[in-house]
Amino acid sequence: MRSIGQCCIAGAIALLASGPACAWGVGPATTYSKLQWTAAFTAPGVAGCSQLIFDATGDLAHSDTLVLAGALNCGNGGYGMTGSLYAAVDGSLSITMVAAGYTIACPRVFGWVGTCAIFDSAGYQRGTGTIALL
């Protein structure tokens, strides 16, 4: 059984797959609220973080990109998170987030599960991780 978050994103991807996005025009943005993901990361400072919760907002009629804002929750608190998500032509999602001083890049999320690389502000990889939509 899929969660509400999976159904919301699945509907958004179906809309994207139904035709090419236009390079012009602006329509109303849609927000997919409180999308919950499990998370497991190895980078220092975020190794104890186990959950991502974010809202994804965008105008899917004219773009394949959603803007993300939320939190990376950890056992001892949490971090604010911002980023973006887009649907790739191979059917995967590409998610990039900035949290806790890191850029977390999850370039090929298939079936609501993906692996991530974690980079510091100088661009050096400091760890890896996984995410999965609840």
The fraction of residues in strands falls at: over 45%
Strand order of the largest sheet: 1-2-3-4-5-6-7-8
Distance between the termini: 10 Å
Radius of gyration: 15 Å
Number of strands: 8
Contiguous uncertain segments of 5+ residues: 15-19
Shape: globular
Largest sheet: 8 strands, antiparallel, barrel
Break the fold down into its secondary structure elements and pairings.
Elements: H1 4-17, E1 30-41, E2 49-58, E3 65-74, E4 77-87, E5 93-99, E6 102-109, E7 113-119, E8 125-133
Antiparallel strand pairs: 1-2, 1-8, 2-3, 3-4, 4-5, 5-6, 6-7, 7-8
Describe what you observe in this structure.
- The chain is mainly β and 134 residues long.
- Helices cover 10% and strands 55% of the residues.
- The protein has 1 helix and 8 strands, in the order αββββββββ.
- The chain has one helix at 4-17, and strands at 30-41, 49-58, 65-74, 77-87, 93-99, 102-109, 113-119, 125-133.
- An 8-stranded antiparallel β-barrel has the order 1-2-3-4-5-6-7-8.
Short description:
The protein is mostly beta strands and about 130 residues long. About 10% of the residues lie in helices and about 55% in strands. It has one helix at about 5-15, and strands at about 30-40, 50-60, 65-75, 75-85, 95-100, 100-110, 115-120, 125-134.
Features:
134 residues; mainly beta; 8-stranded antiparallel beta barrel; 1 helix; 55% strand; globular
